[in-house]
Design a protein that fits this description.
Rossmann fold, five-stranded parallel sheet, 3 helices, membrane, glycosyltransferase, PRTase-like, transmembrane helix, HGPRT
């Protein structure tokens, strides 16, 4: 994609698929059944790739907590319609990335306060170094070396570039 905002390549399509396979292998070794709870819209691409590699029984639902990339103080409303019951289930929150971790921490807290789950964990393609600690297991393929803003594979800038099939640094 030729765009002045898409900079240096961070993860190629091949590297992304290798990361997806790594996370799937880890989850396949741990679970026999789970509810996959996608964080939308960013987690859609990673979820679609991941669930096709899972070998255990899954149910799927979605949750939303809109935010601006790089916003560490996200206070937007959490929207969850609970199409699938989370009570006494293994729940895996799936998102494309954990950047600051503020939004994910809010989602984890919300779920823990409102549902009695058998287990709760997070699956994401990559994490950034400046993220907050989470009180649940995290499964990820890549630890980034900087907190640079990234675009592609679900990550937007100004609500664009989610459909870029690789991950690149943002050029403002």
């Amino acid at each position: 994609m030729n765009c002045p905002h898409i900079g240096e390549l961070v993860l190629s399509e091949t590297q992304i698929q290798q990361g997806v396979a790594q996370i799937a292998d880890e989850l396949n070794a741990l679970f026999t059944h789970a509810v996959v709870l996608t964080v939308v819209p960013g987690g859609i691409f990673f979820t679609a790739d991941l669930v096709r590699k899972l070998k255990f029984d899954i149910k799927m639902d979605y949750i939303s907590c809109p935010h601006t990339p790089g916003d560490t103080q996200n206070q937007s409303e959490i929207v969850f319609h609970e199409n699938i019951s989370l009570q006494h289930q293994n729940v895996i929150i799936v998102d494309d990335a954990i950047e600051s971790g503020g939004t994910m921490k809010r989602l984890v807290s919300y779920l823990q306060q409102n549902y009695q789950m058998q287990s709760l964990s997070i699956a994401t393609l990559f994490v950034k170094p400046g993220r907050v600690d989470m009180a649940v297991p995290e499964y990820y393929a890549y630890a980034m070396d900087s907190d640079d803003l990234l675009v592609g594979y679900g990550l937007p800038w100004e609500d664009k570039f989610r459909n870029v099939p690789y991950l690149s640094r943002l050029v403002k």
